[in-house]
Design brief:
Layout lengths: L1 H7 L2 H32 L4 H17 L2 E6 L11 E4 L5 H9 L3 E7 L8 H7 L3 E3 L4 H13 L5 E6 L16 H9 L3 E7 L1 H4 L10 E7 L5 H6 L2 H16 L3
Parallel strand pairs: 1-7, 2-5, 2-6, 3-4, 3-5
Antiparallel strand pairs: 6-7
């Protein structure tokens, strides 16, 4: 799909669309940078910060004409921290998840993102965790240390495949989100994102307006996470996500 978009759009139109997206990302970052920095330092709960984080995501969604909708939100227990496990097809997945999930969501990011001016500094203050993907042992320790410092009520999002799917098929899962749930004592919240690949597939820079749907599946209770081998829990969650991702 990404290749088709590149062939059918004239080069000038592509550059204009990419420039439009970059402009709004930059402007949104400038608008919320100071409020995020101030509230992140003054409000340890991150509840006020989350308001401005949602504004940032909302600006990007609105200006690219991408809508979001959700089902199953009633399965989320207010105030509970979860290890959120989601499929991953597009950079817009996280925008849809933050927009729709009624909780404070933070994520794991590669350390290179921390170098982006303003954006990287602001994100680091919101308790997102930057890891070095080239050093798995160091990444695990960084993740564990980061989880221990998270304020109560914040949930951590894991794209369990580790990267975006190029063809829409769900790949093997990595263990990070499941081991985190065991170590932290959190329940697991499986989530399915549908429609994002049509909006911005892997390898593409031009956004196609559309709708992304977020479906919350039944959580895996923390007791089950603690009692069962993480490999079994991981496979069960993956099968559920695969099954629900195939819904039309």
């Amino acid at each position: 799909m990404g290749g088709e978009a590149k062939r059918t759009l004239p080069a000038v139109v592509r550059y204009l669309k990419i420039g439009w997206l970059c402009f709004w990302i930059g402007l949104a970052t400038l608008l919320v940078f100071v409020p995020v920095v101030i509230t992140a330092r003054l409000d340890p709960s991150q509840k006020t910060t989350q308001f401005f984080v949602r504004i940032w995501y909302g600006i990007i969604l609105t200006t690219t004409r991408v809508k979001t909708r959700s089902v199953g939100l009633e399965k989320i227990r207010p105030g509970c921290s979860y290890s959120i496990i989601s499929n991953h097809q597009s950079h817009f997945d996280i925008l849809a998840l933050v927009a729709e999930l009624p909780m404070i969501v933070r994520f794991i990011a590669k350390k290179e993102l921390r170098r982006i001016p303003l954006f990287g500094y602001a994100v680091s203050l919101t308790h997102c965790i930057f890891v070095d993907r080239s050093d798995s042992a160091k990444a695990v320790k960084t993740l564990q240390d980061g989880i221990r410092t998270l304020p109560s009520g914040i949930s951590m999002l894991f794209f369990a495949e580790g990267t975006r799917s190029a063809d829409g098929k769900i790949g093997p899962f990595k263990k990070g989100g499941f081991r985190t749930a065991q170590i932290s004592g959190w329940p697991i919240l499986p989530v399915v994102v549908r429609g994002s690949r049509k909006i911005l597939p892997k390898g593409e820079l031009v956004v196609t307006p559309g709708t992304i749907e977020v479906e919350v599946l039944d959580p895996v209770p923390k007791e089950e996470v603690q009692e069962r081998p993480w490999e079994e829990v991981m496979e069960d969650v993956r099968q559920r996500i695969v099954t629900h991702s195939e819904k039309v």
